Amino acid sequence: MAEGAKEKYVEELVDQSDDFSRWYNQVVRKAELADYAPVRGCMIIRPYGYAIWEHIQRLLDARFKETGVMNAYFPLLIPRSFLEREAKHVEGFAPEVAWVTRGGGEELEEPLAIRPTSETIIGYSFARWIQSYRDLPLLINLWNNVMRWEKRTVLFLRTAEFLWQEGHTAHRTLEEAEERTRLMLEVYRSFVQEDLAIPVLHGRKSENEKFAGALRTYSLEAMMRDGKALQSATSHNLGHNFAQSFDIQYLDADGQRKYCATTSWGLSTRIIGAIIMVHGDESGLILPPHVAPYQAVVVPIWRKDADQGAIMEAIGRIERMLKGKVRLKVDLSDNTPGWKFNEWELRGVPVRIEIGPRDVQNNSVVLVRRDNRAKEAVAIDALETRLPELLAEVQQALFQRALAFREEHTYYAETYDEFKEIMSEKRGFVRVKWAEDSEAELAIKEETKATLRVIPFDQPEGGVQGRCFYTGKPATCEAVFARSY
Amino acid sequence: MAEGAKEKYVEELVDQSDDFSRWYNQVVRKAELADYAPVRGCMIIRPYGYAIWEHIQRLLDARFKETGVMNAYFPLLIPRSFLEREAKHVEGFAPEVAWVTRGGGEELEEPLAIRPTSETIIGYSFARWIQSYRDLPLLINLWNNVMRWEKRTVLFLRTAEFLWQEGHTAHRTLEEAEERTRLMLEVYRSFVQEDLAIPVLHGRKSENEKFAGALRTYSLEAMMRDGKALQSATSHNLGHNFAQSFDIQYLDADGQRKYCATTSWGLSTRIIGAIIMVHGDESGLILPPHVAPYQAVVVPIWRKDADQGAIMEAIGRIERMLKGKVRLKVDLSDNTPGWKFNEWELRGVPVRIEIGPRDVQNNSVVLVRRDNRAKEAVAIDALETRLPELLAEVQQALFQRALAFREEHTYYAETYDEFKEIMSEKRGFVRVKWAEDSEAELAIKEETKATLRVIPFDQPEGGVQGRCFYTGKPATCEAVFARSY
Ligand SMILES: [Zn+2]
Ligand SMILES: [Zn+2]
């Protein structure tokens, strides 16, 4: 894609602070992460973007399996009657469903929905698979594509079709379902923080914001560099709702037939948008080493052809040494070194390895960090230990930087006037005392566009004192509001 | 699923030789590989079946990446106008397409096809991504779901929706495209033979049987235990056909704009059907160790409770010893040992590890092979080396047994009368001298239901002598006919 690449640098990347959403779109396109598809609202995930998703899948899947979850596959198409069985569920999803009405040259008797999510067809199957308490818990995960017909679309963040995983479990008791719901939120939290270097608030969603059909929804909320929140993963305790609609029962040890308690939980390609918006800077993408398709890029620098042999020999040694340890890209294209620096910075490779004639003479290379541009000369023989160490340092530094940013942009509002002032003048999260009033929540959203992102698990020791910032009623918790993606 | 499981053994597995297709369906259901979905023609791949697919994905994906292929994701929905651009292609696929006609509460202006395959939307994108010869070759693979509205469906073998991978590449010359088409067939061949232990014929499809829109199609054909053929993977040289329809051009080094030559190649969840039908026997499934979800199952055998402690301690040692080396299942359910033997034989686990009080005293266990029931006593300390070795022996033995079966059931017919006799009285592959006549091919199919499976790469040294078995015209090659799935 060399020709296309040459054109794309002619136009500089817009400043993050001038136009964040334009910066975002430029990064997605220039870094070749994704493209709009010729079908409205759908996206093509290009190889570089998809490689990030593959690392996400690999790392998250291993974490799921450690908790006893097994993967399966469920059909893409769901009969209309299934969606209609859980009243709240259909209310939430029906407006955004895409319908298949013809197949094999004939009109279908019943329209089939392209799954917006699979609770209903899972419910149908669980009812057939589960007979006794010995079959429980049943712990299933699906990696698949889903479709929600969105009006306004943004690559990765909101597209008609997206990729995700959806976990579905069935349990003997409501307590066990609650435990699993929280466990999966914790799995997401450690994954997002440790592997994606994104600090998150974890907690409960309000009644207004919970999943259509859930008893309770928990979520992770991350702060983007424009101060908006992005919901990074959700975990739903579905209680007996779907079990009752789909008749998921089991014979308990006491000889009684009882309803299962079920859960569901998901994380989608949306999270790639969060990686971009949490870590990126004026030069483009910065990828956390754990999920970077290339963790380091080697850029050879020769001034005359005679230098080439020794440099290529050294690069060969480096490749052999790092094989299976570091994901390495060697850029041998005929672009200039300066060009390559820009390109791989834009594409967010965590570390650059520069190697010129003098480096080869000294049997060393220069390592340049993407996040802070710090340079260090390292002996080639030491790369094997120093580079993985440096990548771990970058991973840590990204997390710390994002955490500092979030703390800097988190405010406490005592009154609604303060709240509105923060919302209109600053960007960020606003933490308030809250009396859990759904109508107040809607009024705040209407006036300020801020929504209740989460009621964090981390609450003041000994409970919340004082009154709700909006209604003046006795506060029951602290809540975090923000504008969001 | 203990209750359900108890019922399922009440009814015995039907004999393979009595009713092969009923045997097949019983194995798929009883081994909990897959289920019919409530949507006509669609399937649910259950965790045990999906785990086989995950191993297939992992092993095949690594082989693709070794040849420079990168994964990507393309949209599920394809505009009708795209399908119509390549005349042969639309003719081949239009009858089996499922159409989305409504989305987000509105009728769509143009119906959208659920992808039956992605050549057209790939063509659209390649045309935009490729500018110069420096962008070539472009090597992409997609792991996704596709839909073809089939009338008669069989789990794994023919379902309206299935999972697969589809590779798509673009090249500078027709020669390079041909080379890639053959390379990918070879990747499939080594994967299917080495990892799935399935011997295959490799070669070219006839004009009648090639992919809709291809210049040439190559395929792998495997023989099932009922003598029928199953096409296990295909690789298509698309020549300039799609490049012309979608205007995929590049600027060559000589300053000329030229059409790319493209290829596509695929392998689907169908291959799980082949694993079942090539290796299975009267007791159920036999899984090749490379893709078995569990490579060995530990069955403890205690007569009295007092035995339990020592046995459990030994099992703990075995688990620690084999961790990361062998995929192990320890069956601690309260079923009897005999029950467990039957269950895990039905589910095809390659090796059973029996451990009773006397074994523990001797510090040993008994290994039982699934394929031939051979038993051996092995010291627990030796398991770490002996078990992986035994699994490799089983993998080899499965391949050899299948190869011997295929050779036993491959016939040579000199005349059409001989051919018809073999087709009506024996089961298997019939190899004939052939003059590549499409009308003759259709007539043979009409009369005998046998189709030309493949013109094998392996042809007689020095070319084919003599005349076509059907037309009497001078033969141009040897061809293999069979009934097929
Ligand atoms: Zn906490
Ligand atoms: Zn050969």
UniProtKB/TrEMBL annotation, chains A, B:
Claim: Ribosomal protein is one of the keywords in the record: no
Keywords: Aminoacyl-tRNA synthetase, ATP-binding, Cytoplasm, Ligase, Nucleotide-binding, Protein biosynthesis
Annotated GO biological process: prolyl-tRNA aminoacylation
Reactions it catalyzes: tRNA(Pro) + L-proline + ATP = L-prolyl-tRNA(Pro) + AMP + diphosphate
Domain Aminoacyl-transfer RNA synthetases class-II family profile: from-to ranges: 46-288
GO molecular function per UniProt: ATP binding; proline-tRNA ligase activity
GO terms for cellular component: aminoacyl-tRNA synthetase multienzyme complex; cytoplasm
Pfam family, one: ProRS-C_1
Location of the protein in the cell: Cytoplasm
Superkingdom of source: Bacteria
Family: Belongs to the class-II aminoacyl-tRNA synthetase family. ProS type 3 subfamily.
Domain comment, as recorded: Consists of three domains: the N-terminal catalytic domain, the anticodon-binding domain and the C-terminal extension.
Role of this protein: Catalyzes the attachment of proline to tRNA(Pro) in a two-step reaction: proline is first activated by ATP to form Pro-AMP and then transferred to the acceptor end of tRNA(Pro).
Oligomer and partners: Homodimer.
Entry protein name: Proline--tRNA ligase
Chain's gene name: proS
